User: What shape does this take?
Amino acid sequence: MSKRHTYAAAVITAAAVLTGAAGLVAGGTPPARAASGAVVLDEGAVDLTPRLVDGELQLQIDDRTSGTEVVREPSEVVWHVVPEAKSFVEGPLQGPLGSLMDAWYLNGWEADQIFALEPGWNGTEAGSDTEVTLTGFEGPGGFALYDWPEDDSYNDIPPDVHLASDPAVNTSYTLGKDTEHAVPTWGFGSEGVYRLTFGASTTLADGTKVSDTETLAVAVGNVDPTDVLPGDGSTPTAGPSPTGTVTPTGSAAHVIDDGHLDLAARPVDGGLRFQIKEGTAYDYEWYEPDEVVLHVVPAAKKKITSDTDFLGAEGDPVWWLPLAQVSGILWPGWNTEEWEPSALDGKVTYQVDSLQGPGTMAVFSGGSLSGWDLWINSGDGLPDSFNHSVDAHSHSYWAFTQEGVYRTKFTVSATLADGTKVGDTATIAWVVGDDVDPSTVKPGAGGEATATPTVGASGSESPTGTASSSPSAEPSAEPSASPSGATSAAPSDGRTPTTATGALASTGSGVLVPLGASVAALLVGSGAVWAVRRRKVQR
Assistant: This one.
């Protein structure tokens, strides 16, 4: 895993420029147009180009997003920084905002993972070097244009900031006459509409100074760019769509689309209960799996890269839930913290028995040396299972390969200290992307006649005994008798816990090694050591 996942693609904190990771895709061939007639650009390569036209300097946009270059005026264009461009990243440098950044980035270190605009600068059309300035700024957060090679971040070398909304930082830089498609990073500190006024000036061979000033409208995040007037026009009346947890009316489900939750194994009435804990360690609510719908918002959309091609073809989309929390995106973890280690004989086993949905789902971590450790991968067959330490809390990566409704059937089980096997089986409903309104989706097992993909094209090796084309045998619905004659008690609401005997796929004894020291505490939580069936996928 690259350090770009732990260090900021745009930690401009050293320069103190940003104040402070649902998608509308308006691009295409040809580009979409706003109601005002403006062209909306949100994916592909563009250049801001100072160009001599009839002896005068004009700052124009060379648009190559549709495959053919078209020259456009900034006053006729709205750029859209898609929600997927949001990142929550940690950098090695300290600044007034601290070391954590939560912002929207174009041309950042993770640019190859998202479908977004790739804005550059072209200085070859002006005849000589061009001085570029930020002469005006409007926006809900900070803005910065800068270069920061990844190697520099490792050596604590600060970013080279060219332009910034902070007046204490550089507000001009020189665009060389031989510079073609330079791609600095653009950072925006908040969601909303920005208006960036750029001045460009150069000196002709006869000593005459020529200049131009243009205002560019940029819609950042969950803002409909077709509502935004170009240039220096007014901001739209409709603000960003609401984020966070909402309670729908159509399905009577509790929709969770943001923030922390845990898939928890809990001791209840002498047995094990599988429930969902939403919130923080000190402010939370408990839900049954059939009461919630988990929404993987469009902002989670990324590109499959060469080192994650076990998910599919490089360049294809994937909806990715990260290891560390990103505001606006679901952050599911695993939780066995309510169990005392002495209460169980061994660990808690999480198993995905089956999956319904339009694509595949994978749960994984960074490998100890290289590659990835796959814990759950519906692409090579189910059931899949892994063991989790007792009295522990951890997180992992999640990935879904298609938009739509998924239903994951989990069996969570353990053995009590007296030998009694306890467990619980329940189904969680997920909505991935924005093709389906999550408030209309029935929670739990639902009723869709959706095929269950169990074998994918990822090419990852299936562990022995797990590449089944059908779910595992159902665990018994009756309480199991222990050697001492004790039984696992039914939960108080009448849902019967299941026994785990014979229901789980075989597991190995590999030990999860954290992705790096910087995330070790996050991975293992309360001293957790995980035993997982490790399917190493090399990068």
